Fold:
Amino acid sequence: MKKDEVPQDDSSLSEMNAKELCYAVDKDGNYITAKSTGWEAKTIALENAMQVIKERVENARQRVIAGKTSPIEYYMELHKMEVNILASYVGMFKWRVKRHFKPKVFKKLSDKVLQKYADVFEMSIDDLKRVPNED
Amino acid sequence: MKINFTHHQSAHCENGVVSNLMKYNGFDISEPMVFGIGSGLLYCYIPFLKINHGPAITYRTMPGQIFNRFAKRVGIKIKREKFKDPVKAKAKLDENLKNDNPVGVQVGVYNLVYFPDDYRFHFNAHNLIVYGKEDNEYLVSDPVMEDVTRLTEKQLEKVRFAKGAFAPKGHLYYPINFPEELKLEGAIIKGIKNTCRDMLAPVPIVGVNGMQMVARLIRKWPEKKGIKVTNHYLGQIVRMQEEIGTGGGGFRYIYAAFLQEASDVLQNKELTTLSKEMTVIGDLWRDFALEASRIYKNRNADHESYDSIADQLDNLAKMEKGFFKKLRKAV
Structure:
């Protein structure tokens, strides 16, 4: 990549006026460092990843409303987590976390267990019991 | 307390931390030099691991390995510590800062507040340097950021004790025991040989074989997984290729910069030629990423376009195979 080919596209970095460093070749063929505001291909890839998460979050929200899962799954998706990551944050086995996705099991959870989830998601137990726009 | 530490921005976090810590200790070592001696370049497809519901492909070695190999090859020692207890982890960090010792710290990215939201995934192998503390805030030099920044005690504790794969467990590290003079020649040769060995390894998921395997998968995915999942997987491949701050051919360009620097140190003209060749390969990785990203942007791509980028990847594998064979002979 030549110095004048260093991409200066829009990205989430450019939105906060940040630049990243990359390596490029100057006109004499020597390697130098140059700043980039972002690159189209990467922006598209990141947007794609965010879009997938958005869809997963919305899907989880709908399933909470339909009584098919508990809000824990919704907040897990909202925090870009997977079951194994959430399990290690709350210090429980994966199967136990998955069990807590069952609305029936969730309803009977003690405040002590709920508090663990609430701490990870940085919210109150009351908020943990519902998802946005449930009504 | 504030240590007289100079922040230099780098393309990749681990190289940057090592380079910055070496510079602080009076050794002018560039980021590409760290990357090359530490044999950072790699390609590996990890079949049993899923990241963010997609395939895990890495373009560089395991976290921590670059510094370990670099240290061993130039003859410095690294002190590393991990903690179960956040209170002890904080106490140890504060003690180092009190002794004017800036330290490398491994952190999770998800709760790094100064990153844009779309960079914040549960990726736990990011590295930064803490070089002081003022008003109960830590002074932070994150190598991929343009400038230094700050984190509160709580914010730093959160990222040092992120959970999941590669959980940092408060991991902190810094170099100790420096030789009087760094001998780079032998270290460079060892670094290069190691990278050639990795890239040409007779293992199906590693190096050029790994690229060919992923090319085969790309051809199969549309049929097996459907277009939507395939596009997500492709996006993931591009995202891993780029990580943060490795724009375009990313690690390939850093490696080309290393070879150029190495050709001066070793007085080896062949390495200059190979550096140019690596730049061309880096450009092709860029083209690959760009075309892959356009495919999943268009969404209604046909099978031919997947085959076409699989062909590109096959071609890259072929070129890199030839390249590393030549490189192995050149040193």
About this structure: Chain A touches chain B at residues 1, 6-7, 12-13, 15-16, 18-25, 29-31, 33, 35-36, 39-42, 44-50, 52, 56, 79-82, 84-85, 88-89 (CB under 8 Å).
